[in-house]
Amino acid sequence: MKYVSQQWLDRQRELQQSFQHRPGASARVQYRLTGVPDGEDICYYADVQDGRIVEQRLGEDPRADGTMTASYADSVAMLRGELAPTKAFMEGRITISGNVAKLATLMPITQTAEYRDHYAALLAETEF
């Protein structure tokens, strides 16, 4: 399935349903990918509740707590495991605006084995 298509977003949500319950790890996140090969930025959002995506759709979310912006190339590198999300953030390759403290509750999830495993499964099904 094509990277960041609605089918891909649905599959990511499906894979995350097995994630450990993490009370308080909840936020609505707007994502923006820049420098997309076809020339148009990709926008999508995720509603994460207690560590699991409950909704994820292409488009804008007026109720988002904040926005995370990264280049398309960096997002692909993160999916492939070539770039750690925390490293990308620390290097300024991911920018965050809005309620940064609320979005930060989601960062520990990216350090877990289940997160890495779900990305590996997703990568195996992804076409770029």
From TrEMBL:
<dbReference type="InterPro" id="IPR003033">
    <property type="entry name" value="SCP2_sterol-bd_dom"/>
</dbReference>
<dbReference type="Pfam" id="PF02036">
    <property type="entry name" value="SCP2"/>
</dbReference>
<protein>
    <recommendedName>
        <fullName>SCP2 domain-containing protein</fullName>
    </recommendedName>
</protein>
<feature type="domain" description="SCP2">
    <location>
        <begin position="27"/>
        <end position="109"/>
    </location>
</feature>
<dbReference type="InterPro" id="IPR036527">
    <property type="entry name" value="SCP2_sterol-bd_dom_sf"/>
</dbReference>
